[in-house]
Amino acid sequence: MTKWEYRTVTVETEEAKTFIDSLNILGGEGWELVSTFTIENIASRFLVSGTETSGIVAVLKRPKE
Any residues with CB less than 8 A from the CB of 7 and at least 6 apart, and which? Predict the structure, then answer.
């Protein structure tokens, strides 16, 4: 049975190019992107309607050696 190790990468929304560069580097190291989700700015929910995305989190995995 394959055992996995996991890693997360978090970046602010304005750093999209850095995010892509990081994913390409990690892909070269054998990491596979499993999922992404956004970080919502909670304070904005009380000040204006809707939410504001303040960052992106990527979840990655690779076989454990």
Answer: 26, 31, 59, 60, 61
